[in-house]
């Protein structure tokens, strides 16, 4: 997911609301959804950092073991 | 040598240092799980294909029910896997998103086609983000 995609989606939803194509309730639902999307991105980044750290530790262990 | 390294990790962790916790969490994180990955992929695929049904209120309701069911299944599956807090958070957020979509159909009022499409896009993007990181968990 890129920020551009979320931004485009947000603009589309806002435009639809302004033109009366979606209700206020539907628009609010979208806005709450965008908040969740942001949280998911943050959670995913956290998991990705752990994965990278895990790979680094595993590699370090392999190297140290080979040297020993 | 592994024992020495593990001892160092343990020492750092027990020292209460924040970095130590991160290293500990990373080293002992839950491994890649096929079912976890498959359920996330199901959410992504259904949300991608369901866009085609957005003109049909009844089919869309069924699709959102399906997305909610699979997300809850994913949440429950990840919940008791040890050292798996990040996957649990991702699953909980997918549940919340699909629940938001489902709620509009449960209320019974005419849900717009635009709502259906954009809500499915939100779920689809989020499922893809989750799938990318879940797929990279250590083997």
What does it look like?
The complex is a heterodimer of chains A (about 70) and B (about 140). By secondary structure, chain A is mostly helical. Chain A has one domain. Chain A contains 2 helices and no strands. Chain B is mainly alpha-helical and about 140 residues long. Chain B folds into 2 domains: about 1-30, no CATH class; about 30-135, Four Helix Bundle (Hemerythrin (Met), subunit A), CATH 1.20.120. The longest helix of chain B has 23 residues, at about 55-80. Chain B is elongated and about 65 Å long. Classes of the chains: A mainly alpha (about 70), B mainly alpha (about 140).
* Overall strand count of chain B: 0
Distance from N terminus to C terminus of chain A (CA atoms, Å) equals 43 Å
Number of domains of chain B: 2
> Which overall shape of chain A is indicated by the principal axes computed on the Cα atoms?
rod-shaped
Q: Span between N and C termini of chain B?
A: 22 Å
Give the strand content of chain B.
Answer: under 5%
